[in-house]
Amino acid sequence: RAVLRDGSVAILSLGGRLRECLEAASELERYCISATVADARWAKPIDEKLINWLAADHKVLITIEENAIGGFSAQVNQSLLEGGMLDGISRAPLVV
Questions:
Q1: Most C-beta atoms within 10 A of its C-beta, which of 24, 38, 58, 85?
Q2: Quick check: pTM over 0.85?
Q3: What would the pLDDT profile of 53-85 be if each residue is shown by its tens digit?
Q4: Is residue 75 a contact partner of residue 12, using CB atoms and an 8 Å limit?
């Protein structure tokens, strides 16, 4: 579910970090960067409709989670890859 809808940056939260994601969106506003904040609520099954919407309508998609590297963010990446969103034609993926 989208908690805050606005901007070119999408922040996708999983777990107990929603408050920090909203704070990050407020901080980005200080730099004239507006952000959408979405709460994935659960990792399985992954909400592919939400992820596809965030990826298609935003220039940047950031995943925030409390779990280890390779968890939820890897599922999001795999979903985008299988959906053709990371084909490199219109946008290049960047993993940090």
A1: 38
A2: no
A3: 999 889 899 999 886 666 888 888 888 888 877
A4: no
